[in-house]
């Protein structure tokens, strides 16, 4: 009996090259031409070092911009350049229809279970941690977003709970266990986020009613908009493994080895965040950007529409990456 059956992707490695060539790659190229003005894979720092980091399998952690395309395009770009197709963890809320679940599991997506009780969450986290450790033990590359759900305001910060889940079953030195994952952060930058107006809409609905929750229909709308909406120039930037920075942290602050787990998690999260923030592509925003924001506000149709609040949130989600990038540059210098 396969204990990973409920979360694992399908074992179809032998036929993936065929379906990639016949269906997946042509469709992603079509989306690239239809929805972007350019899609590129770039590097932060020494490209050869980054390539050495990922040669025997890497754990790619990225900021989270889009429900579907974050993982799809990273897999596409890595497959084209390095013949790597990472296993990808996605929330099971995306499996709204059976055919979507089949398609995603077929394309090396495994399920991250959500919206369950506290006890079930812990059990699911243990099983997921074990499955990820099983994949890394076989030298497989993995992709996972840095947080559950997208950062609606563009303030991309790694959730310690994600890192905790990855090391949940490990014993011994926490930092050595993190290094064994070989975490290579990746920055994802969209010139325009096709879901920006939907995110702003969600923020007002939650502000007005803290108990408001997205429905399956909302998830489907976000998926469709994220896939088919205009994005401008899209840049995926690979950054080096965080392992040397963990070593540098411990050399400068050996007290972290004996620190509480929460402090250790926070320290590693800050390293991941700095890599991601430094790797952002910073886009020039001219005067026409104001007209773009106004057009997005106009697309939002909700009761008691607060245009000033929506406008503020739209600007915020585009400004926060710039602010975080500049802060990280100051830390580097």
Q: How many structural domains can be distinguished in the coordinates?
A: 1
Number of DSSP helical runs: 13
pLDDT averaged residue by residue: 92
Rg, rounded, reads: 20 Å
CATH hierarchy, class: Alpha Beta
State the shape.
Answer: globular
Order of helices and strands: HEHEHEHEHEHHEHHEHHHH
Largest sheet strand order = 1-7-6-2-5-3-4
Strand content: 5-15%
Q: Kindly identify the CATH topology.
A: Glycerol-3-phosphate (1)-acyltransferase
Reported CATH architecture? 3-Layer(aba) Sandwich
Helix-and-strand structural type: alpha/beta
- From the N-terminal CA to the C-terminal CA, the straight-line distance is 54 Å
As residue ranges, the low-confidence spans are none
Number of strands: 7
Helical content band: 40-55%
Oligomer: single chain
> What does the largest sheet look like?
7 strands, mixed
Detailed description of the structure:
By secondary structure, this protein is α/β, with parallel strands linked by helices. It has one domain: 3-Layer(aba) Sandwich (Glycerol-3-phosphate (1)-acyltransferase). It is 53% helix and 12% strand. The chain contains 13 helices and seven strands. It has helices spanning 16-35, 47-54, 69-82, 98-106, 118-137, 160-166, 174-181, 196-208, 216-228, 243-252, 261-278, 288-298, 307-332; strands at residues 36-43, 59-62, 87-91, 109-112, 142-145, 183-190, 232-238. A seven-stranded mixed β-sheet has the order 1-7-6-2-5-3-4, with helices on both faces. Strand 3, helix 4 and strand 4 (109-112) form a beta-alpha-beta unit. Helix 6 (160-166) crosses helix 11, helix 11 packs across helix 13 (307-332) and helix 12 (288-298) crosses helix 13 (307-332). 34% of the residues are buried.
């Amino acid at each position: 009996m396969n204990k990973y059956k409920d979360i694992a992707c399908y074992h179809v490695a032998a036929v993936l090259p065929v379906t990639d060539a016949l269906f997946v790659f042509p469709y992603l190229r079509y989306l690239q031409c239809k929805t972007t003005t350019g899609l590129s894979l770039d590097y932060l720092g020494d490209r050869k070092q980054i390539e050495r980091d990922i040669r025997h399998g890497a754990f790619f952690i990225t900021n989270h911009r889009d429900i579907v395309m974050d993982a799809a395009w990273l897999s596409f770009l890595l497959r084209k350049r390095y013949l790597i197709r990472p296993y990808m963890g996605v929330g099971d809320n995306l499996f709204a229809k059976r055919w979507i679940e089949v398609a995603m599991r077929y394309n090396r997506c495994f399920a991250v279970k959500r919206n369950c009780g506290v006890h079930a969450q812990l059990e699911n986290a243990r099983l997921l941690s074990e499955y990820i450790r099983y994949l890394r033990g076989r030298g497989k590359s993995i992709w996972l977003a840095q947080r559950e759900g997208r950062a609606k305001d563009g303030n991309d910060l790694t959730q310690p709970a994600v890192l905790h889940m990855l090391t949940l079953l490990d014993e011994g030195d926490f930092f050595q266990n993190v290094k064994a994952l070989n975490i290579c952060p990746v920055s994802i930058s969209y010139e325009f986020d096709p879901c920006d107006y939907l995110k702003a809409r969600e923020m007002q609905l939650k502000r007005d009613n803290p108990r408001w929750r997205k429905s399956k229909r909302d998830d489907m709308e976000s998926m469709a908009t994220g896939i088919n909406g205009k994005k401008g120039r899209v840049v995926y930037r690979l950054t080096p493994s965080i392992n040397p920075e963990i070593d540098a942290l411990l050399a400068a602050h050996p007290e972290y080895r004996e620190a509480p787990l929460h402090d250790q998690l926070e320290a590693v999260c800050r390293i991941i965040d700095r890599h991601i923030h430094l790797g952002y592509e910073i886009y020039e925003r001219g005067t026409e950007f104001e007209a773009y924001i106004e057009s997005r506000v106009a697309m939002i149709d909700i009761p008691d529409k607060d245009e000033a609040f929506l406008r503020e949130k739209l600007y915020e989600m585009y400004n926060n990456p710039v602010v975080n990038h500049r802060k990280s540059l100051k830390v580097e210098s």
